[in-house]
Amino acid sequence: MTTDTPTKLMLIDGEWAESSTGEWRDITNPARRGEVIARVPRAGQEDVDRAVASSRRAFEAWRDVHFTVRARALLKIADAIDERAEDLALITAQDTGNALRTQARPEVATLASLFRYFGGVAGEVKGNTLPAGADQLQYTRQEPLGVVAGILPWNSPLMIAGFKVPAAIAAGNAVILKAAEDAPLSIIMLAEICNEYLPAGLLNVLTGGGRTAGQMLVDHKGVDKVSFTGSTEVGRGIARDAGERLAHVSLELGGKNPSIVFPGQVTDKLIDGLLMSSRIHRQGQSCTAGTRLFVHRDVEDEVNERLAAKFASMVVGDPTDEASDIGAVINESQYKGIQEYIEEGVNDAGLTVATGGLPPTEGPLAGGNFHVPTLFTGGNNEFRLAREEIFGPVVVSIPWTDLDEVIAMANDTSYGLAAYVWSNDINQALSAAHRIEAGWVQVNQGGGQVVGQSYGGMKDSGSGREVSLEGMIAGFTQTKQINVKIDV
Ligand code: NAD
């Protein structure tokens, strides 16, 4: 760290705050190992207590305001995000390593859309009335839960904050975000923007450790819901601890997602779609990455060959460089973990490296956490590389011939987050989509989440839905029934 390294603070009760512990964490540049780009506070118990108290105060007022007040605030924030879009994208590229052009800018655009969408549907947080006779008024209210703790991962902090904050606030809750240790800077910038338009305490932003600040929020009696996105392992502990005190919980966890290619013409659209669904542009650091590629034997050679060529044509480089298609992996520990998987694949006689392999050890990429897109072919569903979430730019292609067998392989995983089906026969495609155990199946496309859609996992990929209108109501409200006797 140099003397001009920027210091970024937490937002508590509308004010910028250091940690009560006096501790700091250096934030480093994934593209240049050892380069410190900022330092942020490590929140302790006192900070968590202060954030919870201020969120509770803000909630007491916000729960009763007219929905148009909530809508107006969210729409203003959406406009302000648009105005600062380039700053948000740049800071995202700098602390996450996600490439500016292909990843960081689209992420910011999704964030603005999510604020706009939930601003638009804030008035839809409605109850219903029962036709219970002239002497009865029997109706329900969808009431907010209270204080929501949103715990974020590092892979796409802004988009995931966008899945939580506007929906929770539109439904009348207050939110405390706990940013990921390695990528808090874009979330602090989002806090700056929101702080202009929201009452103090309605959105607090903490930085700090998972086992410290994160766990304190999970255990805090003043937190009514924990909305967690991260690994399955940590999610399991959060479900246990928040469940122990009967807090509401939703979990968006890991994935090892199948992508099934049926026989047919191998078009450019198919190859581009497979590239997109593999989330190679995000260094494979996406819970929805289609990393188990089941290709029908009739088209196996052509698909693998053309996809390998596509992977090889991607430009890996500094995330802030416009020329880069792919940026850097978040930190050295993830980088090394991915490298171990690749080494295992390279040394396994059962697998062939169609493109990529071990990361560069010389040249401009050697100084950062850069991996190259890697496609293994000839695998089967039993390989460790096909079973565990690598969270790197690594795809394993597995041939198939029998439909029942490929559906069984697709479902033979503890995860159930996303899936992709590629077929020009719509009956075939939809029948497969219905049989796959995943919370989100895409047919003949591989893009990211779109505003308004439902999103969430099955099996070990999580539980609860928050992102759609229905998700907002299910995830951020509770139903109260009111029965009134009328003298007629
Ligand atoms: P992680 O589980 O290590 O950390 C996520 C967050 O939880 C961080 O903010 C961390 O500080 C916090 N945390 C850690 N221990 C905690 C504890 N005991 N109590 C409370 N909070 C705690 O995950 P990560 O490495 O940051 O992210 C990668 C993982 O996230 C991958 O498994 C990926 O699939 C998953 N993910 C899922 C989705 C989804 O929508 N399903 C989206 C993005 C990432």
TrEMBL record:
The keyword Lyase appears for this protein: no
Positions of the Aldehyde dehydrogenase domain: 16-482
Q: Which residues form the active site?
A: E252
Task: Cite the GO molecular-function annotations of the record.
Answer: aldehyde dehydrogenase (NAD+) activity
Q: Which UniProt keywords apply?
A: Oxidoreductase
Gene3D superfamilies recorded for this chain?
A: Aldehyde Dehydrogenase, Chain A, domain 1, Aldehyde Dehydrogenase, Chain A, domain 2
- Name the EC number(s): 1.2.1.3
**Enzyme class per UniProt:** oxidoreductase
* Family matches, as InterPro entries: Ald_DH/histidinol_DH, Ald_DH_C, Ald_DH_CS_GLU, Ald_DH_N, Aldehyde_DH_dom
Protein family: Belongs to the aldehyde dehydrogenase family.
Protein name (Swiss-Prot/TrEMBL): Aldehyde dehydrogenase (NAD+)
What is the organism lineage in this UniProt record? Bacteria, Bacillati, Actinomycetota, Actinomycetes, Mycobacteriales
